[in-house]
Amino acid sequence: MKRKCNLCNSTMNIVFEKDMYNIGKAKFNLVKCLNCKLIFVDPLPNSTQRKEMYSKDYFETNKLSGTREKGYMEDQEYYEQDFKNILRIVKKYKRNGRFLDIGCAAGYFLNLARKYGYQVHGVEISKFASEFARKKFKLDVFNGELENAKFKDNFFDIVVAANVLEHVEDPNKFLLEIKRILKPNGILVIDIPTYVNSPYYKIVKLISGMFKKDKDVAKMFKVNQEKMPYHLYEFSPRNLKMMLKKLGFKLLETKADVPYPEVIFSKKGFKYRLIQLHFIILNMLARTLNIKFNHMVAYFKK
Ligand SMILES: [Zn+2]
To answer: In order of start, what are the domains of the chain with their CATH numbers?
Structure first.
């Protein structure tokens, strides 16, 4: 039976990318809902497969899907720059209050938010990362799924889900839980990749052929390697707005950018310069015209 769409409940979908991902020999397609156009993984990885995906290695060696040279745990400064940009916007809407980061990983964002004057809490599914956050930054981090943290109703002023919504099995249920724990007029920040829905994705697929022999770059473009289905959903900006609107959230603003892949920016030679230029131009267009080529941050109000 076909998987039901998490946004509109339709079971009418078509294959968007056949065998997009694999875990060992198990293959996973990306399918597209014919009704609302939401793109998602089919079938869903089972619990054993998910455990394999989110081992300690995910944080130590995943290196942001191959775009960064350092592992996540050694790369605090890089991530802090993005977090500062988000906190500047959050400050416009809420100057202080209770701040929750769902999927807080090593706690870099929470550590920074505390310096900006918020009372911070975290939820993190990785035992390894949550222990790191507690030890290194003395943060209050719940290790497990959001639903199991059992926060009180209307508890938080700000909830952040950065690079999380595309990973959860049931985004609709997940957002309902956020709605329950967020105060009326509370702010929800969703940081999410948008590239599969963008024309940019087609360009990347074209370029990737040029780099088949360069191991680092091939890894970034996910050529000839194991590709686990970390992203269970590929939201377009429109799909994200639709889902949040259905749940009663109001969109405040969105910001787009194209992060620079370090594996390409650290290299010399004409071929790399060409690709670097491509990223610089895309990022400029994304930032000035707010075009969602690759990645966006959306701010909502409950
Ligand atoms: Zn749908």
So the answer is: 13-301 (3.40.50.150)
